[in-house]
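Run log // design_07
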């Protein structure tokens, strides 16, 4: 896998290169740049398999560079490096097709997983391209290859289709997408059989049905029909209705008409981008393009107050309260008819906020959140339940990891941690806890280090700093009030200790994470 790194901080750039060289000998860094402009020139010239890019850089930032690559039609895989404060950039990255983005400072495990994900995607694309292009000849295989952009609609193809299939490539075509979601593998055969039966009964219309497993959808291409309005009404009143009865659940269906076979892939992409209207319109509705673009919607205002309450509940690991807040958020998003993109952005922002807060509270829990999978699920969601499931999955992962951590700790350490929680602001010592637990300080210190990997003194210092972070994120308390609650008599001394541990003043930390 050929890689180009675009990062303006030389120390970070060199660290990434060393890490890549250590992870896999087949990962080759073919170029590096310290700004987006230089990166754009390198990428255009060298065409790497993967770009690893920072967001904020001089001359041209990472988002501008990616936007320019898209406008030039240069296909690429990207790992984007960002911080929570750069949420708006990450949100834009989702729209540009970036699937891998890592919060700074990056962890080795997250980075290795992202590289592995990219490598798997590249491998699958090569296999898919080979399998779908090796058999060209039939009408179905030609249309399928055009649909996958692996065949150009040139004069030779046009002549072949006209002479052998009586198909005018400049004629009018209709395209219907049936989104089956997570039930794709279970339903695709019976749905395809039903479509074949119904379409065969429709005289004076020719068709081909294609399976798109990566999109969990079936696509019907219609041609040689007489009246496009009649076909659209028939698809809505017959095919969609029969689909709902067959699957016994809501169905998402999209419709588009296009002129010229060369526009088939472009038309499918446009329609796919509009299917998420099912999030706000509900299922069992045919989403017809371009009619859907004229739907009037209300302006969506992101609920900052809900996010703030979410952060406070996370700091307390109050899962019952979190579930209540979740349902309030869902209800808020359903109050009016909003743009589906606005709803997805709200889900992404709230998820990003949850993960960033968890990272500050407990990095071990954060490492187990499967953040890429969750954010990608939101980005790719077509129906409302897929959005809700992604957010619930995030909460379940947090709760599950918390429970696993607790179960892996002995009763003695659990009791010691409970005493620390109760008396940390009074400056409780290892000896005092050992007396309360009726064990020797030496034994308690050894057990602490064995199970938690750090000494008692470091643990209690880290504990107080963690409590400080929770209060800075989850409350509006003044600095001197937080210092007092942590057992510091001098708020300036507390601020100095906090900066030594985190590299930021309490005020800077609160501003960045609040």
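design_07 sequence
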């Amino acid at each position: 896998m050929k890689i180009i790194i675009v990062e303006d901080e030389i120390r970070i750039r060199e660290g990434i290169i060393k890490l890549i060289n250590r992870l896999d000998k087949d990962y080759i860094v073919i170029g590096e740049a310290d700004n987006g402009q230089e990166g754009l020139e390198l990428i255009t010239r060298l065409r790497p398999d993967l770009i690893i890019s920072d967001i904020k850089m001089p001359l041209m930032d990472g988002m501008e560079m990616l936007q320019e690559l898209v406008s030039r039609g240069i296909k690429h895989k990207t790992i984007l490096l960002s911080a929570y404060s750069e949420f708006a950039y990450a949100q834009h990255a989702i729209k540009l097709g970036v699937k891998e983005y890592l919060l700074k400072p990056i962890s080795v495990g997250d980075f290795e997983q992202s590289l592995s994900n990219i490598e798997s995607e590249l491998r699958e694309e090569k296999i898919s391209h080979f399998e779908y292009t090796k058999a060209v000849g039939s009408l179905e295989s030609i249309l399928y290859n055009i649909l996958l952009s692996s065949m150009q609609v040139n004069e030779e193809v046009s002549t072949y289709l006209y002479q052998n299939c009586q198909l005018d490539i400049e004629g009018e075509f209709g395209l219907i997408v049936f989104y089956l979601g997570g039930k794709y593998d279970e339903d695709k055969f019976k749905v395809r059989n039903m479509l074949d039966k119904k379409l065969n009964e429709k005289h004076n219309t020719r068709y081909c049905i294609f399976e798109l497993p990566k999109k969990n959808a079936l696509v019907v291409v219609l041609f040689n029909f007489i009246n496009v309005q009649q076909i659209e009404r028939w698809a809505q009143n017959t095919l969609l209705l029969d689909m709902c009865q067959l699957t016994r659940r809501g169905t998402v269906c999209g419709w588009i008409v296009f002129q010229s076979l060369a526009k088939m892939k472009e038309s499918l992409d446009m329609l796919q981008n509009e299917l998420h209207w099912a999030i706000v319109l509900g299922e069992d509705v045919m989403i017809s393009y371009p009619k859907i673009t004229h739907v009037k919607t209300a302006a969506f205002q992101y609920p900052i107050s809900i996010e703030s309450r979410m952060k406070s509940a996370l700091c307390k690991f109050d899962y019952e309260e979190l579930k209540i807040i979740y349902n309030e958020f869902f209800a808020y998003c359903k109050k009016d008819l909003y743009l589906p993109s606005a709803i997805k952005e709200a889900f992404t922002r709230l998820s990003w906020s949850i993960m960033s807060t968890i990272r500050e509270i407990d990095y071990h829990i954060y490492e187990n959140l499967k953040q890429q999978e969750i954010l990608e699920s939101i980005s790719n969601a077509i129906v409302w339940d897929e959005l809700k499931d992604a957010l619930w999955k995030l909460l379940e992962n947090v709760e599950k990891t918390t429970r696993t951590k607790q179960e892996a700790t002995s009763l003695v350490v659990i009791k010691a941690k409970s005493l620390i929680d109760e008396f940390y602001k009074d400056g409780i010592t290892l000896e005092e806890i050992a007396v309360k637990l009726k064990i020797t300080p030496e034994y308690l210190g050894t057990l602490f280090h064995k199970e938690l990997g750090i000494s008692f003194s470091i643990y209690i210092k880290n504990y107080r700093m963690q409590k400080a972070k929770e209060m800075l994120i989850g409350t509006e308390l003044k600095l001197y009030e937080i210092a007092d609650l942590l057992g510091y008599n001098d708020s300036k001394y507390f601020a100095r200790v906090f900066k030594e541990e985190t590299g930021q003043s309490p005020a800077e930390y609160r501003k960045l994470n609040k």
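The beta strands are 2-6, 28-33, 50-54, 77-82, 100-103, 172-179, 206-212, 217-223, 252-259, 285-289.
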